[in-house]
Amino acid sequence: MKKIPATEKNIPRCVGIIMDGNRRWAKERGLPTLEGHRRGAEKLEEAALWCKKLGIRNLIVYAFSTENWKRTEKEINYLMNLVRDFILKKSEKLKKENIKIKFAGQIERLAPNIRQNIKVLEKETAGGSNTLYIAISYGGRAEILQAAKKIARDNKIEDIESLREEDFAKYLWTKETPDPDIIIRTGGEKRLSNFLAWQSAYSELFFSKTYWPAFTEAEFADIIKEYCQRARRKGK
């Protein structure tokens, strides 16, 4: 494949990250599983700042999937507490860095106080120059299904016949998010696990063996550098 130099022109507009490996990271270090999640939440804040430093305007992360509701009540409660802590405390640094924070997913499944906190945070950060999208209670198939249902409610049959891909995309939870140029999955697994099923059609995929809490800015920068050297044809 022809190599091309890294320039501002081919810096990705949007990066997606599947933040995997929190529990295994903790287990290998003899730590409680929940400590892995805490360290992973701290890494999320760092990643948003890495993107800003490199000129990447949009980051979308897979924080909690629709399937994650099947985990133990103790683990779910801990994860929801991390969400509250991020919204109320950890987001302060990102606010100062002028980063907009948005959430996508089945927000209605979250506790009322979390939903209210999300609404406030999104309003407070609405003018940010960079954007961090957090996919929470999110599943790619669920996103497509709810979009199809909403389209059916909002349109006549003759209108649906003329529906275009760009029209469909406007009904997605992530409608304000550019399709990710890159999706990175940490933790060694090589699958997308229902993340951005519609939007990932032309994404470049990178799989890292590093667990998310141990993922570094240097490794992230190397991945971006490799991406910038790829010639993306999108079927042409």
Q: Residue-averaged pLDDT, rounded?
A: 92
The main β sheet shows up as: 6 strands, parallel
Elements, N to C (H/E): EHHEHEHEHHHEEH
Low-confidence stretches are: 1-6
> Helix- and strand-based class?
alpha/beta
CATH class: Alpha Beta
Spatial strand arrangement across the major sheet:
3-4-2-1-5-6
Q: How is this fold's topology laid out?
A:
Elements: E1 14-18, H1 22-28, H2 33-54, E2 58-65, H3 73-96, E3 99-104, H4 112-124, E4 130-138, H5 140-154, H6 157-161, H7 165-169, E5 182-185, E6 204-207, H8 217-228
Parallel strand pairs: 1-2, 1-5, 2-4, 3-4, 5-6
Helix pairs in contact: 1-2, 2-3, 3-4
Task: Write up what this structure looks like.
By secondary structure, this protein is α/β, with parallel strands linked by helices. The protein has one domain (11-228): Undecaprenyl pyrophosphate synthetase (3-Layer(aba) Sandwich), CATH 3.40.1180. The chain is 44% helix and 15% strand. It has helices at residues 22-28, 33-54, 73-96, 112-124, 140-154, 157-161, 165-169, 217-228; strands spanning 14-18, 58-65, 99-104, 130-138, 182-185, 204-207. The two termini are 14 Å apart. 34% of the residues are buried.
List keywords for this structure.
single chain, Undecaprenyl pyrophosphate synthetase, alpha/beta
Summarize, please.
With 236 residues, the protein is an alpha/beta fold.
